[in-house]
């Protein structure tokens, strides 16, 4: 598990080691099994991340392998994060230390939940994702630069030199991350005067006087 | 695009601003919270150094984790106790009203807000719980939200939302005796599918809807979400106003008349435009039972479990999974399926009229040997009203357990749960795999009267047959006193029997 600070402010790039997690349709129940939902804080969710998958593979799961401890860029395949809307899933990943995700595609609600936490979910070509997963497996100690300005990921490998792949992200979410307005709350708080004006004309707020 | 509907009017009234990401900022008139989805939201608020913008517009209760046998503090389950204590602390710290255990007002969040008169026509209502659609019964726009949205509402009393399409569900005719709002909504979901309503608000309208009591309308709107519609609503009318008059948080005195005028003006007009419309005939609907693992897998109690060739090709894979999980064979009648556990309660069917309908069936009969049957009132007020008219005694005499209020075995976050492959007849809203607390447990959804019938028969049975036998004594279920406006104004479901 990592001790990186939680995301804050504008997010234009992230640098960290990669963690390939192959497989399509990995759902939120696998990311964080339901029994971990009985909690009053997200803080300790890291221990539950992929709990059942990990115990099934007794130590051989990517999240358990020595070479990936401290990694922060999760590289996944198709439809990652499908299933229930539980926010515990991105929270668990974030608490474990994940700060960015690169994949073929993401489930819509999961993508939105990640964005609200400041975790960019970048998409890339299936072939490029496979190359990236392969390259990380070959040199797991290499630093990966996730660049939201240039819209690419760069693996800075001692062995293979730099390797770069293009990634995509819709302009709306990208702008939200780059400007630091990815957290929905600050957007809403920015319109306080309009909020008061709306409230002023709702008769039930003034007891129908 | 819809226009002139209640949904459009309420949306426009609550619109605050257009946000950069393309969504709309919507003012939230009523925010309901409970112990499961709020603690992380309060923690996030603290982390961000924010306060609650309108503490008087948020109301809390505890429902999901409460035990229904002994609610003495500290709760036996330390995790449950911690969740409740955290809610108490958060509410105290931020000045939020909490209707706690023993307050006389505690209960399932979607039961207490209406009975306190908190839910009113024309409001936007949000709660960190998908069955928030219940409140649409009042002509409110009500929807479930996730934990970071709970944080957003606490901090800003608003949410980033995208406008839905509006589908009118027009229901002609009248429900037949022994057929309830639960059967109607199971029938609608069976027909339109569990994803049929995605991207839509459902407006329920037509003669059959107008004839429903408020409690029945709540059952209907409660399950809109099971049909994929994030919210469902009924236009406010005299039934709505009669229900609300005199409730503790409803307007009173001169404000009452002004409120009724405002509420009346919000209903979809004759010239309202809908994105589409679907029509049903209430008279054609039979008591409906689910046989599978989604609320859309329902059939009339007189039908057989569908064979693959009777189903849409798209539905066959899921049906295969359901046959196996439920251990039900295609082509076999659903009536006669033996049950192990019978559960009456939940935000779908844990209100007074539901308990009356079930008691009318249980009265003078006995729970079949080997069946565990229990009744969990939706709130402390429902429990008190039911006890005042002797329903608890009717249930106990018939061999049902009479429990304390909470969500209970609807989702089994408390000790009430199925064991192993037990099969339950349940008045709740979800029959997903493992929903009722056992990973292999099985659920048949049905109306409370049908659950009571299953309890006394030991198997799925058409409640209309029991009622035709005529030995139920409806007199035992008629109100003797009038503890709440609902009792005097709304026809009880039992009166149809
Ligand atoms: S009764 Fe069931 S559906 Fe309703 S709020 Fe409780 S857990 Fe959710």
Describe it for me?
The complex is a heterodimer of chains A (209) and B (497). Chain A is α/β, with parallel strands linked by helices and 209 residues long. Chain A has a single domain, classed as Aconitase, domain 4. Chain A has 8 helices and 7 strands; from the N terminus they run βααβαβαβαβββααα. A 7-stranded mixed sheet of chain A has the order 4-3-2-1-5-6-7. In chain A, strand 3, helix 4 (108-117) and strand 4 form a beta-alpha-beta unit. In chain A, helix 3 (88-96) packs across helix 4 (108-117). The longest helix of chain A has 13 residues, at 126-138. Chain B folds into 2 domains: 6-277, 2-Layer Sandwich (Aconitase, domain 3); 287-477, Aconitase, domain 3, CATH 3.30.499. Helices cover 33% and strands 16% of the residues of chain B. In chain B, helix 2 packs across helix 5 and helix 13 (352-362) crosses helix 15 (391-398). The model of chain B is unreliable at 472-497 (pLDDT under 50). The site of iron/sulfur cluster has 13 residues of chain B, from helix 12.
Instruction: Assign an overall shape of chain B.
Output: globular
Radius of gyration of chain B: 21 Å
**Count of strand segments of chain B:** 19
Number of domain modules of chain A: 1
Rounded to the nearest angstrom, the distance between the terminal CA atoms of chain B is 41 Å
Fraction of residues of chain A in helices?
A: 25-40%
CATH topology (level 3) name of chain A: Aconitase, domain 4
Overall tally of domains of chain B: 2
Tell me which ligands are bound.
Answer: iron/sulfur cluster
Strand order of the largest sheet of chain B: 5-4-3-6-7
Numbering strands along the chain, what is their spatial order in the largest sheet of chain A?
A: 4-3-2-1-5-6-7
Q: Which whole number gives the mean pLDDT of chain A?
A: 91
Specify the CATH architecture of the largest domain in chain B.
2-Layer Sandwich
Q: Structural class of the helices, strands and pairings of chain A?
A: alpha/beta
Uncertain runs of chain A are none
Question: What is the rounded distance between the termini of chain A?
Answer: 57 Å
């Amino acid at each position: 598990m990592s001790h990186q600070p939680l995301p804050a402010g504008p997010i234009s790039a992230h640098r960290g080691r990669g963690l390939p997690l192959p497989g399509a349709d990995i759902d939120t129940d696998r990311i964080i099994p339901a029994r971990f939902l009985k909690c009053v804080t997200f803080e300790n969710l890291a221990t539950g991340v992929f709990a059942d998958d990990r115990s099934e593979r007794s130590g051989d799961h990517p999240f358990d392998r020595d070479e990936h401890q401290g990694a922060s860029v999760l590289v996944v395949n198709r439809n990652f994060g499908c299933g229930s809307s539980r926010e515990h899933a991105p929270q668990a990943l974030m608490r474990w230390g994940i700060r960015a995700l690169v994949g073929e595609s993401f489930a819509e609600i999961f993508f939105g939940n990640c964005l609200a936490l400041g975790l960019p979910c970048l998409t890339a070509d299936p072939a490029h994702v496979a190359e990236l997963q392969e390259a990380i497996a070959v040199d797991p100690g290499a630093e990966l630069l996730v660049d939201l300005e240039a819209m690419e990921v760069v693996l800075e490998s001692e062995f293979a030199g730099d390797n770069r792949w293009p990634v995509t992200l819709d302009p709306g979410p990208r702008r939200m991350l780059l400007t630091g307005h990815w957290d929905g709350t600050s957007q809403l708080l920015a319109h306080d005067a309009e909020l008061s004006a709306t409230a002023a004309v709702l008769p039930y707020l003034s007891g129908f006087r | 695009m819809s226009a002139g509907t209640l949904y459009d009017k309420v949306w426009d009234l609550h619109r605050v601003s257009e946000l950069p990401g393309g969504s709309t900022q919507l003012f939230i008139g009523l925010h309901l919270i409970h112990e499961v989805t709020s603690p992380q939201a309060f923690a996030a608020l603290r982390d961000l150094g924010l306060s609650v913008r309108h503490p008087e517009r948020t109301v809390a209760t505890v429902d999901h984790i409460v035990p229904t046998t002994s609610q003495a503090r500290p709760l036996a389950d330390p995790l449950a106790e911690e969740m409740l204590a955290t809610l108490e602390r958060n509410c105290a710290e931020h000045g939020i009203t909490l209707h706690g255990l023993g307050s006389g007002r505690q209960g399932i969040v979607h039961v207490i807000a209406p009975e306190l008169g908190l839910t009113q026509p024309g409001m936007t209502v949000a709660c960190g719980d998908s069955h928030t659609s219940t409140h649409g019964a009042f002509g409110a726009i009500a929807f479930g939200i996730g934990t970071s949205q709970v944080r957003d509402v606490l901090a800003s009393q608003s949410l980033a939302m995208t406008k839905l399409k509006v589908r009118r569900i027009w229901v002609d005719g009248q429900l037949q005796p022994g057929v309830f709002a639960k059967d109607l909504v199971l029938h609608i979901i069976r027909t339109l599918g569990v994803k049929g309503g995605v991207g839509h608000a459902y407006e329920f309208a037509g003669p059959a809807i107008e004839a429903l009591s408020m409690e029945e309308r709540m059952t209907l709107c409660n399950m809109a979400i099971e049909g994929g519609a994030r919210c469902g609503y009924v236009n406010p009318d005299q039934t709505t106003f009669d229900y609300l008059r005199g409730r503790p948080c409803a307007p009173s005195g001169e404000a009452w008349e002004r409120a009724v005028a405002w509420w009346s003006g919000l209903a979809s007009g004759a010239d309202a435009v809908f994105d589409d419309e679907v029509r049903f005939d209430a008279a054609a609907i039979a008591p409906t039972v689910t046989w599978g693992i989604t609320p859309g897998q329902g059939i009339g109690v007189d039908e057989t479990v569908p064979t693959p060739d009777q189903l849409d090709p798209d539905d066959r894979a899921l049906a295969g999974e359901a046959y196996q999980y439920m251990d039900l064979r295609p082509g076999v009648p659903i009536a006669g399926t033996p049950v192990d556990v019978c559960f009456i309660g939940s935000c779908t069917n844990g209100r007074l009229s539901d308990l009356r309908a079930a008691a009318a069936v249980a009265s003078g009969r006995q729970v079949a040997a080997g069946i565990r049957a229990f009744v969990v009132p939706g709130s402390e007020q429902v429990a008190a009203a039911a006890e005042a008219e002797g329903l608890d005694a009717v249930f106990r005499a018939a061999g049902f357990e009479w429990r304390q209020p909470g969500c209970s075995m609807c989702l089994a976050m408390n000790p009430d749960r199925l064991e192993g492959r037990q099969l339950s007849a349940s008045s709740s809203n979800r029959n997903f795999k493992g929903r009722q607390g056992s990973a292999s447990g099985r659920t048949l959804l049905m109306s409370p009267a049908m659950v009571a019938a299953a309890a006394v028969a030991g198997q799925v049975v058409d409640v209309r047959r029991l009622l035709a036998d005529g030995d139920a004594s409806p007199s035992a279920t008629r109100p003797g006193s009038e503890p709440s406006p609902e009792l005097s104004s709304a026809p009880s479901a039992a009166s149809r029997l």
